[in-house]
Write a structure and sequence with these properties.
With 255 residues, this protein is mainly β. Helices cover 7% and strands 56% of the residues. Strand 3 and strand 4 form a beta hairpin.
């Protein structure tokens, strides 16, 4: 297969030396977020969405935890049978160590990180009654990371038994299918469910430069599957994204 899933990496780690440590960019498992958009039945065919969210994910070592907040802005348009959404986001969070014990080389309790990125998505849909069936779509996201955790990944590449990707850019590109509808009482009370499937791309392989440069992977690509739910009540909204290794809760406002 071209794409290597997180589970493949986990199996590799399970058979590796128990002293080896592995680190990848903070958003490798959580660079996907639901982008709201108007229904074709809305009186307004373009809308702005501002939201804040809390994200939680597992680190490469599984015992590590990643928590960060995110601020998102999206601009969405609905045309004849097509939605287009684009936006930007910033994030700030903490990488919490659970794999390194006190006294081990490079031990830390937590490392901060921050950054930003952008997203673009589009759907082809058919309208049936109160629902839009967004049959096929795509989403593209690119994030750039800065901070203590980024510098840590670069530093430990030269340490014994540490394998790290020091790259700071994560790109996700996936296909989506979705259904969205409004309630009988109000066009502005809306629900949506979405399925996202696609790869996440890192810049580099996990490397160790203690002796000669060695890598622990044959690919820098990881498959992702996300389920999303969206609820809008008048101008306020709630969204939720979940995969096997991450989750996101968001609250937003439409204007």
């Amino acid at each position: 297969m071209k794409y290597f899933t997180f589970s493949i990496t986990v199996l590799v780690l399970a058979f590796s030396s128990c002293t080896s440590k592995f680190y990848t960019p903070a958003l490798i498992n959580s660079n996907v977020s639901y982008q709201p958009k108007p229904l074709s039945s809305d009186s307004v065919k373009a809308a702005n969405y501002l939201s804040g969210s809390i994200n939680n994910a597992l680190g490469e070592m599984m015992a590590d935890e990643i928590i960060f907040g995110q601020l998102n802005y999206n601009r969405a348009h609905v045309y004849n049978n097509v939605n287009i959404v684009y936006g930007a986001y910033g994030f700030l969070g903490t990488y919490k160590n659970g794999a390194l014990d006190v006294g081990e080389p490079y031990y830390f309790e937590k490392k901060s990180f921050s950054g930003g990125g952008g997203r673009l998505s589009a759907n082809y849909f058919l309208r049936m009654g109160r629902a839009d069936f967004r049959i096929i779509g795509f989403e593209l996201g690119v994030s750039r990371e800065f901070g203590e955790y980024s510098r840590f990944r670069d530093e430990v590449r030269s340490a014994k038994d540490f394998y790290s990707d020091a790259g700071n850019v994560v790109t996700t590109a996936g296909l989506t299918t979705e259904i969205a509808w409004h309630t009988k009482r109000s066009l502005m009370n809306q629900h949506a469910f979405r399925l996202y499937v696609g790869p996440a791309f890192r810049q580099n392989k996990m490397e160790n430069k203690f002796n000669n440069v060695t890598t622990y992977e044959t690919s820098t690509t990881r498959s992702s599957v996300f389920l999303s739910y969206f609820l809008q009540v008048q101008r306020f909204n709630f969204s939720f994204d979940a995969s096997i290794f991450s989750s996101r809760f968001g609250l937003g406002y439409r204007f």
